[in-house]
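Summarise what follows for lecture notes:
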Amino acid sequence: MPIWSLTALELPLRFTWKISRNASTAKTNLLVQVRDEAGGPAGYGEAAPNVRYGETPAGLQAEFEALLQSGLGRVSSEAALQEFLAGQPVAHALRFALESAVVHWEAARAGQPVWQWLGVPAPASAVPTAFTLPIMEPSAVAGFLQEHDMARFALLKIKVNQEMGYELLREVTRVLPGRPLIIDGNEAWTDPDALLRFVEQAAPLPGLRVRLLEQPLPAAEAAAYRYLHPRTPWPLFADESVTDAADFADIARQFHGVNMKLMKAGGYRNGLRILRETQAHGLQTMMGCMVETSLGIWSALQLSGLAGICDLDGLLILRDEPFGLVREQAGQLHAQAVLPATL
């Protein structure tokens, strides 16, 4: 019989993680483990709760206990888990942790790499990632870029809000002119014309090179995105507008690309479906993450061969990353080929 367990991971951050809607100096993620009571390898998955989707560590722990009461302990395969969860209300992040744990477990027992078990191309040995500058006082930008050696990353992400977006871009382009940037609004704007005025103001900045503009308005503002789609000079990418499901025909009228995060998708299988739907509708593909340990990032890297852009820097934000499954060198991520039998 399998044994399922859940452990809280207290994760202090290297710096204050501030986006347009909140700020934090630590995260609590959850580690799911499944193993056979007779021994052998274990399977591990990570949940990174996100308050944007109503997820909290305590809430996910309560859901896990309810799943145990409902028979999770009898689930010993991916197919059985999918059937079991079909009738259960489970947060996306916890669902991903459960599914990835059992996928990792089954792949280990079959002697296969996870990417092969999932039926996807092998990830590259080195995967370039963006690295993110959180919202801060513009006067602190130059020091932050230097302290964290952000020049080693070929692509940078800049978190912005309405109040300081222009000033943050001005400072980044002053220090690192010509560096491709992802501008991430995290739904900070409410008026599409106000957003276009921000774009018009920022576009002439010397050295500004924008790769994409990510989710500047709330996900509910579909009509505003359809208005913006032909008007913005920067490609628009959906983040919060595509969680575990979406009308991709309409998404293609709103955006030029999609940022798929496994914690939002609720599992490898649904994440794969989202990436394939994105491609099928002529949209650019991107893989992102929450603030995660190297376990969550290792998991995302298994699908990285399907993504045109990777923004998988969540482990680099942690002060004391606990597992060491992925290392970063010169702005590229190098993952262990297989997970160890125990973490």
In short: The first strand starts at residue 2 and ends at 18. The chain has a mean pLDDT of 97. The CA atoms of residues 80 and 240 lie 29 Å apart. The longest helix spans residues 92-110.
